[in-house]
Every structure is written in structure tokens, then in C-alpha cells.
């Protein structure tokens, strides 16, 4: 994570521009003694020999563990625990989650996000649920990491909540798009045409055409993340 910044955040001639990196771990169904905690593990200087008096940036990597369980949304030990508990609790229906996001945290949800949440929680549609679950997990993870990192830079309480609101919405939308890509990939692998796929997914051919063509170009790997990047112009 640090070395990946070379030639983007810093150069070999100027290591002072290295940015601190946070590795965020969200622990669901955490043991009772860790529930509703946020713990940061960082690097520290320890002199083993001699008396080093030079300047050195040693605190460049931190790991942060955020622990919740199925009832964190009720206890709301911190706004962050309440928000994450709401998103990941299996005790709430999609409508209840949407209502809490709006009323408790001021997060406005779009019709697309609401549909995605309902589809994710609908276990009766196994194929759609599997594709959506995979996409939402990937999208949410990226969105949460972005929000958590921004929050950590601003402060572990106030900043986390502000950073997460945007990250969660972006993550849900990204997850929905990756779910659609994943479903089209599966059907293309089975040799199905655009018209058949559109009919099975109850979508207009025109709305699926761009995804369908991108999936064909991605054969034989059909990498969902790469296809998503191509569609959004982030990968050549």
C-alpha cells in the first residue's frame, strides 16, 4: 500500500511526500468483548541499539478494526456503530434500513438504492441475490474504505460519519452496477444473445447493450472489476 504510491504520491527523489495508509477492517458478528469498539494499531519507534536522533517518519501505516454485531444499530454506542449496524444487520427489513438511514443519519436514498437493498435481502431470487451480494460487498467495501479513510484524517468520530455517507451511497450504486455486469457475464458464458439476456433480466436491450458489448470484449476472463473500470473510463 505504501509502495503503490511511488510515482503517484511521491518520487524516488522525494520520500517526504509519502501519505499515511490506513487498513480498515470491519468485523461483523464480533465476539462480545470486542463489540462496539474501534481500535487502531499503528507503528511506533523502538530503539534497539544506539541513540538515533535523526528525523524519521515511522507512523505511516495503521490498521483500524471496527467491531459490530446484529444489535449495534440499537445500542448506537457511536454514530458509526449505529450506521454500520443498520446496514449489515439481518434483523432489519430493507424498508426498515432505508427508514433508519433517512431518519437517523440523514442519508437520502434513491429509488435505485432502495431496489438494490431489497434485492439483496430477497433470498427467494437466488441468482439475482448472489450477483447483487457479490457486487454490493465489493462496492460497499470500497465505499466504506474511502469514507473511513477520509474520516480518520478528519477525526475518528465526526469525520467518519461525514465521510461514510458519501462512500456508502457510492458503494451501493457501484455494487448494483457490478451485480448487473456479473449477471450478464454468466449468461454470455452460456452463449445467450443480447435479446435473450434482456428478456430474462426484464431490461431494455438498449440499456444492456453497452454492458453486453463490454462483456464480450472481456472474454475469456470476464473480470467484473475490469469491465466496470472500462465502462467508467478508468481503465484503458
Key phrases:
single chain, 236 residues, mainly alpha, 3-stranded mixed beta sheet
Radius of gyration: 21 Å
List low-confidence stretches.
123-130
Determine the fraction of residues in helical runs and give it as a percent range. Answer: 40-55%
Order of helices and strands: EEEHHHHHHHHH
Distance, first to last CA? 22 Å
**What's the shape?**
flat
Mean pLDDT: 77
Largest sheet: 3 strands, mixed
Number of domains: 1
Structural class: mainly alpha
Q: In percent terms, what proportion of residues is strand?
A: 5-15%
Sheet with the most strands: spatial strand order:
1-3-2
How many DSSP helices?
A: 9
- Total E-strand runs: 3
Summarize the structure.
The chain has 236 residues and is mostly helical.
SSE topology sketch:
Layout: E1 21-27, E2 37-42, E3 61-67, H1 72-75, H2 79-88, H3 94-105, H4 111-121, H5 126-154, H6 158-189, H7 194-201, H8 205-217, H9 224-231
Parallel strand pairs: 1-3
Antiparallel strand pairs: 2-3
Helix pairs in contact: 2-3, 4-5, 4-6, 5-6, 6-8, 6-9, 7-8, 8-9
Explain what this protein looks like in three dimensions:
With 236 residues, the protein is mostly helical. The chain has one domain. It is 54% helix and 8% strand. The protein contains nine helices and three strands. It has a three-stranded mixed sheet with strand order 1-3-2, with helices on one face. Helix 4 crosses helix 5 (126-154) and helix 5 runs antiparallel to helix 6. It is flat, with a radius of gyration of 21 Å. The chain starts with 20 loop residues before the first strand and ends in a 5-residue tail after the last helix. Mean pLDDT is 77; it is low at 123-130.
